[in-house]
Each structure stands twice: as structure tokens, then as C-alpha cells.
Amino acid sequence: MMKLQILGTGCPKCKQLAQMTETAAQELGIEYELIKVTDINEIVGFGVMSTPALVVDGVVKLAGKVPPIAEIKKLLA
Prior knowledge:
Strand content: 25-35%
Number of strands: 4
Structural class: alpha+beta
CATH topology: Glutaredoxin
Order of helices and strands: EHEHEEH
Number of helices: 3
Oligomer: single chain
């Protein structure tokens, strides 16, 4: 099972990235667990300075933007 984490404080872009990531994972047929990380210290612990960010299995894949679903799919594949 893939562990997907959305790093962000709950802003609209963070929520958008969470929804788009779920959609991308579902369309790819990936078994996943989606976790929203809102604790600022935990976010900084990943080395992320701008949110939203996407972490796949412990690796930061993107930060500071909400890319198109096609790009998210590439990051998950």
C-alpha cells in the first residue's frame, strides 16, 4: 500500500491537492492511504518550506504548487 501525505495547514490549495491526489490514485487503481499533515513542525521536518506538498512513501515529490492531475499521476506511477 502506498502512503500518500499532503503537507499543509488546511488552506484551499492544500485541500485541492488532497482531492486531486486521491482522484489520481483512484484512476491509477493504486492502493493507498492518504494522510493530511497539518502540524507545522512535522511539515518543516520534511524540509518543506512552502505548502502544499505531496509526500509519496516518505519522499517529498512536490512542494509549493498544485499541478494538473496528469502530473500527479506521473509522480505516483
